[in-house]
Design brief:
Elements (H helix, E strand, L loop, with lengths): L7 E8 L2 E8 L7 H10 L23 H7 L7 H12 L13 E6 L4 E4 L16 E4 L2 H4 L13 E2 L2 E2 H11 L1
Parallel strand pairs: 1-3, 4-5
Antiparallel strand pairs: 1-2, 3-4, 6-7
């Protein structure tokens, strides 16, 4: 894979009750690479064997190896305040959510509940390639997940009770 093929995205992770944010290669968040590879093979593609150097050697990422996987991603963790500040800088000129979409997560990985929620406009359907015993759904987790799973206090776009994502969506609908 060349660097031109890398699509960096924001992913939200819930692990041991804590919400974390990561910005890195979207493909690193295909939770079960074996399933992804097998689908390509079933559809007639010639796919090379898994490269152990890829994604720190994890073919499957699940609740059993989450701590080790997240430790490998420590350099990709993003502070929510960093995302909040970038959103604040770009908010006034944004006509809709689309103008700041790169700041919002495309996936919510909940290691505690063994669940993946994905919401994106294009790319790999990450919610389809989840480990055994997990569920994956295409869902607007930013607005549809319950407070006990994804609290408003953890959402960098909500400050002082003002939901900038909701305002951007409203703004976009008016354009």
């Amino acid at each position: 894979m060349s660097t031109m093929d890398i699509e960096n995205v924001i992913v939200t992770v819930r692990y041991e009750g804590h919400i974390r944010w990561y910005r890195c290669d979207r493909d690193w968040w295909v939770m079960d690479v074996n399933q992804w590879r097998d689908e390509f093979i079933r559809n007639g593609y010639d796919v090379p064997e898994f490269n152990d150097a890829y994604r720190f050697g994890f073919k499957v990422v699940n609740e059993k190896n989450a701590a080790e996987f997240l430790k490998c991603l420590k350099d990709y963790e993003v502070a929510p305040d960093t995302l909040s500040m970038e959103l604040a800088k770009r908010y006034q000129t944004a006509r809709s959510w689309w103008d700041v979409a790169d700041l919002f997560p495309v996936m919510f990985v909940d290691f505690d509940r063994r669940e993946v929620g994905a919401f994106y406009s294009q790319g790999t359907p990450m919610e389809r390639y989840v480990p055994d015993g997990w569920t994956g759904r295409f869902i607007d987790f930013a607005t549809e997940y319950p407070e006990e799973v994804f609290p408003a206090s953890s959402k960098f776009w909500i400050k002082g009770g003002v939901d900038l994502l909701a305002l951007l969506n409203k703004r976009g609908a008016e354009v």
